[in-house]
Design goal:
The structure is a single chain. This protein has 201 residues and is of the alpha/beta class. The chain contains 7 helices and 6 strands; from the N terminus they run αβββαβααβααβα. The strands form 2 sheets. It has a 4-stranded mixed sheet. It has a two-stranded parallel ribbon with strand order 5-6. The relative contact order is 0.12. It is an enzyme of class 2 (transferase). Belongs to the MGMT family.
C-alpha cells in the first residue's frame, strides 16, 4: 500500500517529467519556427557547473559558475538576442564532447564555434589557441607572436581573460614566461585542474 509520502514523491517525479517534456516541445517548436536565436543548458564538470549557449552558427558561450550564469544569460540577451530558451538537446553534442574531454578520452573539440563575441585582435588570438596541443602550454609572448603582434603580450592576456569559450578554446594552456599560471576566468584552481588533467593523459 502506498503511503502519502510515496504518492507525493510519485507526483513530484511525474510533474518534473511533464515540465521537461513541455520545455523540450516548446524549444523544438521555437527552433522549427526560427524563433530560437540562443539555446542554452548547464552541465556539471570537475571545474563546477558550466553554462553552454549556442546560436545557429555554433557554440557561442561557455561560462563558469563564478561568472554568474544569470548575468551571462542577461548579457547574451543584450549582445545577441532576447529570443533565448533552455534547450538542452541543441547542445547535446557539446555536452558529450566536454564529458569525453573531462574523462581524458578527447584531446580537441569538433563542435562548430561562433566567435561573434570576440572582435579584432582578441578574436585573432582565440583562433590561434587551438594550435596549442593538448598537454602543452605556450607563453603569452608565444601566442602574441603567433597572432602576428609579438609586442602585444598584454593584449593576449586580455583576450584570454575575456575568452567567451573557455575550455573548448584552450586559453588555460597559456601561461606566463616563467611558467606560473597567470589569470584565468574560471579561477586559478580550475586552470590548474585542467592542466593537470591534460598532463596526466
Amino acid at each position: 500500500m502506498n503511503t502519502i509520502p510515496d504518492i507525493i514523491d510519485a507526483l513530484s517525479v511525474s510533474e518534473s517529467d511533464v515540465d521537461c517534456r513541455l520545455r523540450a516541445r516548446l524549444a523544438a517548436a521555437a527552433d522549427d519556427a526560427g524563433l530560437l536565436d540562443v539555446a542554452y543548458r548547464t552541465v556539471d564538470s570537475p571545474v563546477g557547473s558550466l553554462l553552454l549557449a549556442a546560436t545557429d552558427r555554433g557554440l557561442v558561450r561557455v561560462a563558469f559558475a563564478g561568472e554568474g550564469h544569470d548575468a551571462v544569460l542577461q548579457k547574451l540577451a543584450e549582445q545577441i538576442s532576447p529570443r533565448m530558451l533552455r534547450a538542452p538537446a541543441r547542445l547535446d553534442a557539446v555536452a558529450r564532447e566536454l564529458e569525453e574531454y573531462f574523462l581524458g578520452e578527447r584531446t580537441s573539440f569538433d563542435v562548430p564555434l561562433d566567435f561573434r563575441l570576440a572582435r579584432g585582435f582578441r578574436r585573432e588570438v582565440l583562433t590561434h589557441l587551438p594550435e596549442i596541443r593538448y598537454g602543452q602550454t605556450w607563453s603569452y609572448a608565444t601566442v602574441a607572436a603567433a597572432a602576428g603582434s609579438p609586442r602585444a603580450v598584454r593584449a593576449v592576456g586580455t583576450a584570454c581573460a575575456t575568452n567567451p569559450l573557455p575550455v573548448v578554446v584552450p586559453c588555460h594552456r597559456v601561461v606566463r614566461s616563467d611558467g606560473s599560471l597567470g589569470q584565468y576566468v574560471g579561477g586559478a584552481e580550475a586552470k590548474s585542474l585542467l592542466l593537470t588533467l591534460e598532463a596526466a593523459a
